[in-house]
Design goal:
The chain has 740 residues and is α/β, with parallel strands linked by helices. It has 30 helices and twelve strands.
């Protein structure tokens, strides 16, 4: 599978780089065999990378091909050194916004260059030159290469669609292969004189020893750093991405060893006259999807490329360059992903992305990356100095004496001299003679900020006011007043009640919960003691208010699965949810032959006694009850009570069998259908149905995807789940879809 993807991509990248065609095949062979044997990622596939195309093309033009091979060897040596120094993790410090922006910029540069090849012309020296020459090229295209290029893209798009909706066997032939085969066949039938691939009789026929590049030492050093570091970062990011998708039983990636593998492959590839090598996400994903489990798949893909290059050279030479250029246009367009922009927008890193993209297109790859890093650094500094100041007059309660007004001032963030004007302006709004509660929730306070606050406090108290300062995070103000400049005294970390017991120690907390060999009962009691020590005092006022009466807002029916925690996914607290949990979040239908009144009793009490007006049914992915239904109950037939209870899910199973597959895994589809069915089951109770139809009771369906920790809401009209309205800027701002 990977071999079929690698062949056309390797040829196209070699053409786009201005290198000999054989260099792409050599890099694919070496990347598969050497990086596969030595590298630390068993499923990652290495070879010529589109992300390095712009760098290599620039080096070929500046230093010549054989000198570029020497630079590739030195870049590999640099990667070996980084791997031996075990600093692979440090390479991941580069912001993903910069990396994605760099790849998007490279994609734009590739598209602008290869459009000229498809139209029968030649690419220019820079992206801007290609853009300037494009109107003239469009005005006078050569019809044969243009036809071949358009046909290649059309076949690629059509095959991608067919592989998605057609027979599974089509997925064994990745789109680039049939696209190149069809384009080559059409060119042969038309006896086209469009330029074709020119391979030497032997891959190493034109081999010569690498030459030392001639030029300034700083320029050569920059070229080596560009090859070594860009290829290293791209490979490591690819390794991390593939690691997240690795099947059960496959070992995690050793990033330092992966750098050693990449360095070794680049040294061998450079010596043999091949392109620089890097881990590539397209081929790695294809490897994973084809069922790879060991590094042998990566190694064998290199072997098959070698066999093809040795035995099928005449066929490869029939491939039109316009077809490879069209393939690269499609690949370059895929490198500009709207999903990256959406994800970065949530973290406010879009400026870094577009700064890098624009810099790569206008200035060049190295300069563009530096521009992106600079913008990312400026944005990081801005976040580090972000400061929030709130001033509000406290609302008095009935017990307060109206003798003195009280004001509340909250300062949050990093308090430095840059924030002094903002803090001073806020404090000046506080009237003289008032009581002020000043909350300082700051992670740093410099002397200028301390002096501003302290002098204001002294002046305010001289005028008859009072200032009470509470430091929530660290005691910066107290230390400055007392002269104790030892390390800051931090308040104990907040109890992470939402984290599993087993992960507390890994999150930097220390308590009885971290002790090894604790029995389950002792662990539970240790958790109670931890609650008493750190959480009880925080919730005590709320619990005291709720002690004699509960007023929940929602009846929440969900599964007993330990991974579903209603209060976490709804950001609710004590007294908010009236919860019923059972196996499979099932609701027995009214008059069911398998009687069970526990859920009906909960619903009756919630509606008729507590006055609740919203009932929510929440399902989740990978539900064991639904898996048992899919298996026909055979796995749990020895559990008689559970078997009887699961009969209440038969209507969900029947509904599942009556609906057409929508591309989801069967279990996920049944878990979602089950939510809609349980809402329908509620409506089998006549007294409840009347209230729903009268608008007195609202029914809501939710679905929790455990892997992504995302909750979606049911649109009953289409029986589909959609993102919660208002989650993203592009979502509808209307109220959540309800089922009625």
């Amino acid at each position: 599978m990977v071999f079929l993807v690698a062949i056309p991509l390797s040829l196209g990248i070699a053409v786009a780089s201005g290198a000999p065609i054989a260099a792409g095949l050599i890099a694919a062979i070496v990347g598969g065999i050497v990086a596969g044997l030595v590298g630390g990622s068993p499923l990652q596939v290495s070879g010529p990378a589109a992300g390095l195309t712009v760098i290599v093309a620039s080096m070929v033009q500046t230093y010549g091909w054989r000198a570029t091979c020497t630079i590739t060897i030195l870049g590999g040596l640099l990667q070996l050194g980084l791997g031996l120094c075990r600093v692979a993790r440090a390479a991941l410090v580069v912001s993903p916004a910069v990396v994605h922006g760099m790849l998007a910029g490279v994609g734009v540069v590739i598209v602008l260059a290869q459009v000229h090849v498809v139209l029968g012309g030649s690419p220019q020296q820079s992206a801007l030159d290609n853009l300037a020459e494009l109107p003239g090229q469009l005005a006078a295209p050569l019809w044969q290469p243009t036809l071949i290029g358009l046909l290649t893209i059309a076949v690629l798009l059509a095959w991608t669609w067919l592989a998605r909706v057609g027979p599974p066997a089509l997925r064994w032939f990745p789109g680039p292969l049939p696209a190149i085969v069809v384009a080559t066949g059409v060119a042969w039938v038309l006896a086209s004189d469009a330029p074709r691939v020119d391979l030497p009789d032997n891959l190493l026929a034109d081999w010569g020893p690498p030459e030392l590049p001639s030029g300034s030492l700083p320029g050569i050093a920059g070229a080596v750093l560009a090859i070594g570091l860009v290829a290293a970062v791209e490979s490591l990011l690819c390794s991390v991405a593939i690691d997240r998708q690795r099947p059960t039983g496959v070992a995690r990636t050793d990033l330092d060893r992966e750098l050693l593998g990449q360095g070794s492959a680049n040294m061998v590839s450079g010596f043999l006259g091949g392109l620089p090598v890097a881990g590539v996400i397209v081929r790695s994903t294809a490897n994973l999807q084809a069922g790879a489990r060991t590094r042998m798949s990566t190694i064998l893909h290199g072997v098959w490329v070698l066999v093809l290059a040795l035995l099928c050279g005449p066929f490869i030479e029939q491939v039109p360059l316009a077809a490879l250029a069209a393939l690269l246009i499609a690949l370059g367009a895929k490198m500009v992903k709207a999903s990256h922009v959406r994800n970065l927008r949530h973290h406010r890193e879009v400026p870094s992305y577009f700064a890098t993209l624009g810099g790569v297109v206008v200035l060049g790859l190295g300069e563009g990356v530096l521009v992106g890093i600079a913008v990312a650094a400026i944005m990081a500094l801005r976040r580090l100095t972000r400061l929030s100041v709130r001033v509000e007059e406290a609302v008095p309660t009935a017990d307060d004496l109206p003798t003195q007004a009280t004001w509340h001032v909250v300062v949050e963030g990093t308090l430095t001299f840059l924030g002094v004007p903002k803090v001073a302006a806020a404090l000046q709004r506080v009237p003289a003679g008032t009581v002020v509660d000043l909350d300082l929730n700051v992670d740093f306070m410099d002397n200028a900020a301390f002096d501003t606050i302290h002098q204001w406090r002294l002046a305010h108290e001289r005028q008859g006011g009072r200032v009470d300062i509470d430091e929530v995070h660290e005691s910066w103000y107290e230390r400055a007043v007392t002269g104790d400049m030892s390390s800051p005294r931090k308040s104990p970390p907040p109890a992470r009640w939402w984290a599993p017991w087993a992960t507390r120690g890994r999150r930097g907390e220390t308590s009885e919960l971290d002790a090894p060999g604790v029995s389950p009962s002792a662990l539970l009691l240790a958790g109670v003691r931890d609650y008493h020590g750190r959480t009880a005092r925080l919730v005590r006022p709320i619990m005291a208010e709720l002690a004699f009466e509960q007023k929940p807002e929602h009846l929440f029916i969900t599964c007993v699965d330990s991974r579903v925690v209603p209060n976490i996914i709804t950001s609710s607290g004590p007294g908010d949810l009236f919860i019923n949990r059972n196996v499979g979040n099932l609701i027995p239908r009214s008059g069911s032959r398998t009687t069970d009144d526990s859920v009906a009793a909960t619903v009756e009490y919630a509606i008729n006694v507590l006055g609740i007006r919203t009932i929510t049914v929440c399902g989740h992915s990978n539900c064991g009850a639904m898996a048992a239904l899919l298996a026909g109950g055979t796995e749990v037939e020895h559990l008689r009570s559970l078997t009887r209870w699961l009969r209440h899910g038969n209507h969900s199973l029947a509904r599942f069998l009556d609906t057409e597959p929508d591309g989801q895994p069967p279990l996920a589809r049944l878990c979602q259908i089950n939510v809609a069915q349980q809402l329908d089951n509620l409506l089998t109770y006549p007294w409840l149905r009347e209230r729903v139809e009268a608008g007195e009771v609202e029914l809501v369906g939710l679905y929790l995807d455990l892997e992504s920790a995302q909750v979606s809401v049911l649109d009953r009209a289409s029986t589909t789940f959609a993102p919660v309205p208002g989650d993203n800027p592009g979502d509808s701002q209307t109220a959540p879809t309800t089922v009625a």
